[in-house]
Design goal:
The chain is an alpha/beta fold. It has 10 helices and 8 strands. The two termini are 22 Å apart.
Length: 235
């Protein structure tokens, strides 16, 4: 914990405020707030912040850079029931390191990555929860499989014994209103469920657009600096 109680108190206040806003958005959409998973993204923050969040009851943490992800997961390995979500673009040559630390990977966007994550599993290890990232833009340079390729990717990933397809992940484009972008989530989720009926997770929504994501059916929200505070300067 910090030397002063003020940072811990400020963290608790921000966490409570975001959780209240999430609950309000869920109720406004006719949904039960308890059905949502809030993932706190701790990008660039030290492992001590993860421990502070854990002390406040947070159990789902997210990172998008493999090196930082692996280091924090190792540093906090003593925290019981802590779940690490990898939410960033993944290189196939980092698959083993990602799988070793991850409870779930939200960014599977191609067959080769599904294969690499599957192959990285230790014999007898539980299947890894994965989400298929869908590109909601027309820019192929953005992360995610095209909507047209989603069904084939779902079928491919579902055939990998070391993976468990849980649903989809998406990021709202910067040049489209979030509600308009997220309107596509239910149909995209249905595409995956046609292949894997139990794959009902939808990972969408960040600080600026989680209310729109909740209205569109998101089950997992990825919230960063609104909870953690400003990110430290990188050294």
């Amino acid at each position: 914990m910090p030397d002063s109680s003020e940072p811990a108190e400020a963290l608790a206040v921000r966490l409570a405020e975001i959780d209240e806003r999430i609950a309000d958005a869920a109720r406004a959409a006719g949904r039960n707030p308890s059905a949502l998973t809030r993932i706190v993204v701790t990008k660039f923050h030290p492992p001590s912040l993860v421990r502070d969040l854990y002390a406040l009851g947070v159990r789902d943490m997210g990172e998008n850079r493999q090196q930082e992800f692996s280091a924090k997961a190792e540093d906090t390995g003593d925290l019981v029931d802590l779940r690490w979500h990898f939410i960033g673009q993944a290189q196939t040559n980092k698959a083993r390191a990602i799988r070793a630390a991850a409870s779930a990977v939200h960014s599977v966007d191609r067959a080769k990555l599904a294969d690499a994550l599957d192959a990285a599993g230790e014999p007898g290890a539980p299947a890894l929860d994965v989400l298929l990232q869908v590109n909601l833009t027309d820019d192929p340079g953005r992360g995610g499989v095209s909507p047209d390729g989603l069904e084939a990717l779902a079928a491919h990933a579902a055939e990998r014994a070391g993976l468990r397809v849980r649903g989809i992940m998406a990021v709202a484009p910067l040049d489209v209103p979030p509600a308009a972008a997220f309107d596509r989530l239910p149909s995209l989720g249905a595409t995956v469920r046609a292949v894997v009926p139990e794959a009902d997770w939808i990972s969408a929504g960040m600080t600026a657009d989680f209310a729109e994501a909740i209205a569109a059916g998101a089950t997992h929200l990825r919230i960063g600096s609104a909870i953690t505070g400003p990110r430290p300067e990188r050294g």
